[in-house]
Design goal:
Length: 160
């Protein structure tokens, strides 16, 4: 009898804790997914096999959400990013970042590279550019959370 009560109690505690754990989901997941959905790697960069290693900085500036790229992003990449920035899901991002004090940022590394079938041996730059952690010419200096990177590997399109 004691064993069955103990087991029942354990199962009740586990079922109560489960919804709490589900609520602790990554608040930036929807941001990442919307980035992957809306951002198209610029054709000129694909055709030239130009890889990208940059960081997205998300912060609150005067009660406005600020989303910028580090200096390592190619100008064409930045232009494409600027076109999709309004399409990105930011509601959960705003709610999360509002919990931090002013000056706190979220940094998300972003990598675009090519499978060997796309560029062959041209796809060899595996080092991070010196400007990877610079924003407006200055190294990032402040409190931040460094999140899981967005990694995209581009492959050759299938030909019918």
């Amino acid at each position: 009898m004691r064993k069955s009560i103990y087991i029942l109690l354990c199962l009740t505690v586990i079922s109560i804790k489960k919804p709490v754990l589900a609520q602790q989901e990554d608040p930036f997941k929807s941001f990442r997914l919307s980035f992957m959905k809306h951002f198209n790697y610029p054709r000129v960069m694909r055709d030239s096999c130009i890889t990208t290693a940059t960081m997205i900085q998300i912060s609150m500036v005067k009660n406005q959400l600020s989303i910028t790229l580090s200096d390592s992003a190619n100008e064409v990449f930045k232009q494409e990013f600027d076109q999709v920035i309004t399409k990105l899901e930011t509601i959960s991002v705003k709610q999360t970042i509002n919990k931090y004090k002013n000056g706190h940022s979220i940094l998300i590394p972003v990598y675009f590279s090519f499978y060997d079938d796309y560029c062959g041996t041209q796809n060899g730059n595996s080092t991070l550019p010196a400007s990877f952690s610079r924003f407006n010419g200055q190294f990032y200096n402040g409190t931040c959370d460094l999140l899981e990177p967005i990694i995209v590997r581009i492959t050759k399109p299938l030909v019918n």
